Structures
1.
Amino acid sequence: MSVSLKPLKGFRDFLPETCAVRNYIFACWRSVAGRYGFSEWEGPVLEPTDLYRKKSGDEITAQLFNFEDKGEREVAMRPELTPSLARIVAREGRAFKKPLKWFEIGQCFRYEAPQDGRLREFYQFNCDIFGEASPAADAELVALAVDLVRELGFSPDEVTVRLSDRAAWVRFAEEAGLTDDRVTEFLQIIDKMERAKEETPAKLEALGISMEKVEAFMADPSGASEAIGAVVEDLTARGMADYITVDLGIVRGLAYYTGVVFEVFDKKLGKRAVAGGGRYDDLCELIGGRKAAMPACGFAMGDVVIASLIELTPKANAKLTEFLSKEYAPDAYVVVAAEERRADALALVQKLRTAGLRVDYAMVKTKIPKQFQAAEYLQARAAVVVGDSYPTVQVKRLADRSETEIAESALISTLEALRDPDLPPGTLLA
RNA sequence: GUGGUCGUAGCUCAGUCGGUAGAGCCCCGGAUUGUGAUUCCGGUUGUCGCGGGUUCAAGUCCCGUCGAUCACCCCA
């Protein structure tokens, strides 16, 4: 009986091509987080199930990859990164100067039905600021999110950050006379409003709130929340206003959010949210007790939706291609044109590699056309032909087939020059 | 958990009224013995997802089942 060759439902095999795309996304995440002064951390993939129960309630365990370990502990694969972070900060946060700005890239797991933009395994990029209650911290995060989508090649026509404030809705609900337990219910109705237009008025009536009043509230976001105003002002000063849409329709599902919340969406393709986050000032206390209380905000971006958006957006896709060519394509493929020169070719290969160039070659005797095919298949920038005229070698730029003969000693500088993607065609024509 | 669609070669798919399975791509070899894009010639590749039923005969019709995918639910 043979084993299934497919990965488990909702899991992925990262073959070199998709692995490279994943690494590109990671590289953008790291680069932007670094520019914003965030430090990278990493937590465990497996946590006690209670960590997630405590935060989100029992209903969430239905979508957890959880089991009992051999020590009879209830454990769960992490479905997100924030609880681990809150746990760590509750325990060790005092040792760090505030504000604390940390990010993590981690694989997460959720036992759900896979569909477009959603798998059972995915990577999340998580950015958090602890110890700063001012909207300036929320703005810093939104700015980071904006720079992230910019870095990936998206314009304000393609992507927007929808900005809202959960606290404004809580005040609205309280003024309408709702008791605490009804507020959560109310927030869920608002959250679903966009998807369930028809049922919303009736649901609101059941709570004694009119649709008209809700619509009037949403129509004037500036009056609804000072925090939103402060964040918008901050982002305008940064020149990012064109990426921002104030939209009180964003509430964010269940959860622990206490103030400003935001989600990043594409404008044209109607995919699910690319990223989302907000302020969660109560979570540290909830997990670590009164002594751990600390204001906090954060957001996360998954790799799945953003990867499909990159694929479908020409400019973003071009940036990806440029990165792949720069980071992965061999600088040279050494063609062994005369087998008796193999020792010289090997010496040359190692010399180039030591100089930091990416170099490949055929390990065993191979017909020359095959070697060129291999070079092209690997998208090498140049073929270096080692033959009878060694130490003079032939360098051929594969993109335009221009070629020249040079001394082996001049090879490194020539190959380094070929790395420049803007080099005009025919450069090597002797 | 519920529903729609789809499962045929490594990949993308065609397959009419039920009549004994095909194309393109890929791959391999050759035209071309020291130079990769085109072209031409030749070649390999099948549990038609699986199980049952109807029939002289099933890739095709029926039932079941598994898988993929999309949507609902949920979305931390």
2.
Amino acid sequence: MPVGNNNYLLIEIILMEAAEKFRLICEKAGLTVTHQRFVIWETLASLPGHPSPEEVYARVKGEIPSISLATVYKTIHLFMDSDLFHEVSLHHGSMRVETNPQPHHHLVCRVCKSITDIDAGQIELRMPPGELPGGFAAERYAVDVLGVCADCRKRG
Amino acid sequence: MPVGNNNYLLIEIILMEAAEKFRLICEKAGLTVTHQRFVIWETLASLPGHPSPEEVYARVKGEIPSISLATVYKTIHLFMDSDLFHEVSLHHGSMRVETNPQPHHHLVCRVCKSITDIDAGQIELRMPPGELPGGFAAERYAVDVLGVCADCRKRG
DNA sequence: TTGTCTGCAAATTCTTTGCAAGTTT
DNA sequence: AAACTTGCAAAGAATTTGCAGACAA
């Protein structure tokens, strides 16, 4: 694997301490650096799994007792808008019912958030030959293809 | 394709009118048949896409003006518990942040709802040779492997 | 009948907003 | 100083719950 100039920059970033790194990230994203944001960012990066805002809030409170849940929400949204983190689920805010009985997957537009079904046969999945980690018994697969729908592409 | 005895049953079910079909489904699932449930079931089956409870409620109100939103919620949950329909998203009730910067997919346990990451390299995806429906521009894939985790398998 | 649903209203949970005071640039 | 961010409290949205009367088996 060839090492390009970009990789030197990458290595520098990795070696930088967290605060520096965060400063750089914020600069690139056009975000103001604040202590709250730094601690929330560090906390998110350190928490394994898929933390909820409440969990992040609880953790951050250890460092900044005066932090408010509202700030955690605002900051998480800010980070997501700047692509620093993603949300785990589509439609997290409201329940949606899957009414298509056919095996299918989803085309999810990241601009307008629309979800279109695509026949399961159109996507071929291949799992590893052995077992899945920790003896997980797979039953079915749900694939979300993330991208931009035709309408949103036309609109620029 | 050989036609077994099960297929005769299947054909009968298909030919049955909706009310009969619903009665059979309820019997199999051990659910009481009510008019509200029948109309909600028909509505769900007829609505394309991924309707929210509010949308279902609005539709059903046309047939049963006295229906309440609470009943719609209760019934949708009932149907989901009986596997008549699925939910589109995991974690629909609260925001979850994806903190793993590595490309990865999810192992989702349908019993305990836990979500475990699996390296993206472990799953091979193949898309159709042509374009995706309607000129959708794919950027990345998110795969949820649904099944039962090791812990829940042990517990029976 | 007997147990199970339904509709209503109140309660909860999750998230957003307005604004004054505090920080960052 | 100007612009932006924070914390608080109140508002809002989405969903659940308790319960009395209505319905299904």
